[in-house]
């Protein structure tokens, strides 16, 4: 693999919604919250950040979108555990609706 190919491959990771590109501090800053909030939603199992070789939490863009949705609910007064459950149910509903649509398309 050439150096140019290697750089392109690494750069492509940043286009991947699941690539854990963001540190806890940067992730908290991006969604306007604190690292403690990210730890709390991790403890509630809403998101599970990957760990760097040094053991530091790393977040993907997808996880940041999920965390931002939970933050919106908490900001509106929803307890954090309930907010996490709501986000999980919203995600499950979206998946179910997408699957229903795919099945309808297959049957037409």
UniProtKB/TrEMBL annotation:
<dbReference type="InterPro" id="IPR000551">
    <property type="entry name" value="MerR-type_HTH_dom"/>
</dbReference>
<feature type="domain" description="HTH merR-type">
    <location>
        <begin position="21"/>
        <end position="89"/>
    </location>
</feature>
<protein>
    <submittedName>
        <fullName>MerR family transcriptional regulator</fullName>
    </submittedName>
</protein>
<dbReference type="Pfam" id="PF13411">
    <property type="entry name" value="MerR_1"/>
</dbReference>
<dbReference type="InterPro" id="IPR009061">
    <property type="entry name" value="DNA-bd_dom_put_sf"/>
</dbReference>
